[in-house]
Amino acid sequence: MRIVVVGGVAGGMSCAARARRLDESAEIIVMERGEHVSFANCGLPYHVGGEIVEAESLLVQTPASLKAALNLDVRTGHDVIGVDTGKRSVTVRTADGSQQVSYDALVLSPGAKAVRPPIDGLDSPRVSTLRTVDDAVALKSSVDDGATRAVVLGAGFIGLEAAEALALRGLEVTVVELAPHVLPPLESEMAQLITDELRRLGITVRDGVAATAIEHGDSEDVVVLGDGTRIPADRIVLSVGVRPDTEAFEAAGIACERGAIVVDGHGRTSVPGVWAVGDAVVSTDAVTGIRRPVPLAGPANRAGRQVADDIIRRGSARPIPAPVGTAIVRVGDLTAALTGANRAALDAAGISYRTLHLHPNQHAGYFPGASQVHLVMHIRAHDGLILGAQAVGLDGVDKRIDVLATAIRAGLVAPDLIDLDLAYAPPFGSAKDAVNMAGMVASNVLDGTLKIWDATELESATRGALLLDVRSHAEFATGRLPGAFNVPHTELRERLDEVRGAAAGRPVRVLCQSGVRSAIAHRVLTQSGFDSASLSGGMLTMRAVLGDRAADNLITD
Amino acid sequence: MRIVVVGGVAGGMSCAARARRLDESAEIIVMERGEHVSFANCGLPYHVGGEIVEAESLLVQTPASLKAALNLDVRTGHDVIGVDTGKRSVTVRTADGSQQVSYDALVLSPGAKAVRPPIDGLDSPRVSTLRTVDDAVALKSSVDDGATRAVVLGAGFIGLEAAEALALRGLEVTVVELAPHVLPPLESEMAQLITDELRRLGITVRDGVAATAIEHGDSEDVVVLGDGTRIPADRIVLSVGVRPDTEAFEAAGIACERGAIVVDGHGRTSVPGVWAVGDAVVSTDAVTGIRRPVPLAGPANRAGRQVADDIIRRGSARPIPAPVGTAIVRVGDLTAALTGANRAALDAAGISYRTLHLHPNQHAGYFPGASQVHLVMHIRAHDGLILGAQAVGLDGVDKRIDVLATAIRAGLVAPDLIDLDLAYAPPFGSAKDAVNMAGMVASNVLDGTLKIWDATELESATRGALLLDVRSHAEFATGRLPGAFNVPHTELRERLDEVRGAAAGRPVRVLCQSGVRSAIAHRVLTQSGFDSASLSGGMLTMRAVLGDRAADNLITD
């Protein structure tokens, strides 16, 4: 049997390696258009930034090493430009011309290519993407050679990694993002924390605005934004997203959906004998059921492995699971991570949900180095099924998101999180871990023990309710909402009549710093006959929601 | 309603706080024998070591803060010495005498007390435990005052934390453990890594031997071991375990099992109106069904909360889950953590299982700072249910154990671990995370793709099989098993006839450094007709199993 794999990175190479482990007798040919296979594309920005010193360390495998270890026939510089699905052969273009190569099984892992937005002058030689080792080496060289000002178009994961890398190297960096905030998959209140960190790194953030033109100049270009801003730059990194690189396969009659290859639960395309994996295929989101390509390395590698199982052991292979969509990025000293669905996806899917905000410490507060994990969790309104979570913080973010990703995959409901026995010693966690706390808050919200209000409801709360701030007087003085009435939670029971007078029949909307004390206050109030609710995530979340408007909307003494 | 809680730490205080949040009208009295409530007992060793500078920071709450925030009536120095379950009252002893306090609901959270082994001279004033803030302050003072030599009796979690703290302070420290290795709940091959780290910290480890006597001296005591060793010490820390502190309650007719209070799934004891939580109760292990006390803070806090629900909302409270038994400890630069059952518990429960060893990196190998997570996982033989896992490493250990603890709680089987979408960017993980890798190896073992042999089978493998070492020649030279035949995995396909000759009809037992290359070699061999198996965890695990015998059992050039 001859297996031909198109694309020698992530999914394609995982498939080839697994196929060999399952079948010594198969002929396995990997066709890679580029110069390198199995390279560390997620490591490219760190080479530009200098953390990964040698470009060679990004080349995890070579055709020679793959031949020696796994007897794979890896052909770089081989571009598959056509498929004859009837004859079961592919047309391969190389520097020497074209050839036909027949297959018994064909695995398509062509990946994605950079989206090129309609910007005048995008053909400037100062514009580059960051998708290959050569891209990284070239960008790094331009910095080594004295580049001083960079614009990064697109503030997604790779865009921010590139921006930070260039800032680390001393360049003046501006990030331009068409969406309302950086890292568009993050909720805005989480993205605000990342925007603040980017600014701390000296990076200029321009969000909610398009780049409309790049004016070519002799010593530098000028990036022109939709609002007229002109940003000089000697390097411009294009990172506004990717789309499946599938023209040749769609032309061959393999069914696609908005350019992405359609596959079944075993990675089989519409054509017998042809499988597809990775960034080029359409997946069905595990939480929302939304169909879209999921350009992530983990799911690609897994699908490659499962497709090899299906080819060699047809009928007995495990299905490829729907992706949960977990992702993470380091930005300065912060980490941002997310798993499952965000508000936009849940809204698009018409799923009714509740959103919780927490700011627990990553480990025991009395142990040196304690810092907060800013956590958002979405749960299904009627049963608490965990739909998605996001976290931002200095430490412990990856752990909480991985636990929650596991919970989502296992179909846990939020109260199940209370029951998780997570590892606790003072350097690592708390007796009630951040994830346990999320389960407790969710459980309270689901059964009505806790009624919450959201920072986005501030306007109506200010208009129609008493804002009751139960922080200490000292905290209150450092920044309060206009009209807020201050009764520290430790004085609340004695001052209920005073609160009743101030409320004058209106509901009470309680708030504190993080939502813990206001939840206690809510319980006191609701049992005393008040219509009360506690601000989800407290002033920490309120400040993040207000973002740049916080300075104008908070009163300080 | 009056709720009386006996014990103001962890479970008891969680119960009292939750009860208040649920019911403003209840009278809630917490009786604490000691001087402090809600103190950070897990933080005590770090105060001795100087990482937690102020003892005050260990006092998370005070009676006054609990009164102000939660209207709790917290009484320290109040020792509950008897219960009249018929009259629903407790007898409380204070400095001023005894009193009766009636209750509607009684919650017992008395905790555990240090086991005092039969050692002559254990009453020396130089012997102390490390269970209270006062213990920590006193031990720290003795160090501040010039103590120079310490013996720690017991190498469990707290014993090792104490030993490291004292070593950090410059003392000469010996740890004495009766069990065959330090951290007895760890598998021996994992414990060996911790023993090595303790030695690196300058701590002398004496395991598999009892302390038999403490000879009192003027300037120092001498700890005498069963083998005659005499160890001078001016401080002796007793940390050989705990047992439930329940005499008063058993005497009152509350059903106990080997000294631990028996409770149902809602924390209810045998007596109406009496609940119990924490270190003093017997739990049914979630994995093995073995009944024993589980002295861990997380389960205690959770049970306290659930008992409050049961008291206030009887009938609608969620049950208290069986503990999974997750624990973690930092030892020097290493972290050791475990979740679920170990070999001893599985053997005791008669559960048939398979054990896997892996040594994956904690994050992308090409990113600076990559280090190995040494991982052991036990899975049920017939279906791959995850039964337990342990990990030791420099970084990323807590995350993997928490993910696996979540998987165990959710009832996942090992192949489900392949499907987890874990957060990947080069600083945080790999496209195939350590946990995914564990799932892949387990899946291969379960379906027969991979046949493994265990390092403990070395003797029979040496006797009846060809040991085939597929590492490189250079690796082979640094330490090999006697009789091992070296064919690098990259040369294996070309040298199969040579292997066939060397095997001479015997099975082939393959090995490499970590088990990855030998698994590939196994696939080559088994498809070529050999009876082959791959060493689980490779030479890294073999060296840990050999432990101190490695030097005598390995040949180096």
Provide the low-confidence segments of chain A as ranges. Answer: none
What is the CA-atom radius of gyration of chain A, in angstroms? 27 Å
Counting DSSP E segments of at least 2 residues, the number of strands of chain A comes to 32
Q: What would you call the structural class of chain A?
A: alpha/beta
Task: Summarize the biggest pleated sheet of chain A.
Answer: 5 strands, parallel
How many structurally independent domains of chain A?
Answer: 4
Average predicted confidence as pLDDT of chain A: 96
Q: If you consult CATH, what is the topology of the largest domain in chain A?
A: FAD/NAD(P)-binding domain
What does the oligomeric state look like here? homodimer
Q: Beta fraction of the residues of chain A?
A: 25-35%
Q: So, the CATH homologous superfamily of the largest domain in chain A?
A: FAD/NAD(P)-binding domain
Strand order of the largest sheet of chain A: 3-2-1-7-20
Largest interface: A-B, 93 and 92 residues
> Which geometry of chain A do the CA atoms define?
globular
The separation of the N and C termini of chain A measures 78 Å
The level-1 CATH class of the largest domain in chain A = Alpha Beta
Kindly state the percentage of residues in helix of chain A. 25-40%
Helices of chain A, by number, come to: 17
CATH architectural designation of the largest domain in chain A: 3-Layer(bba) Sandwich
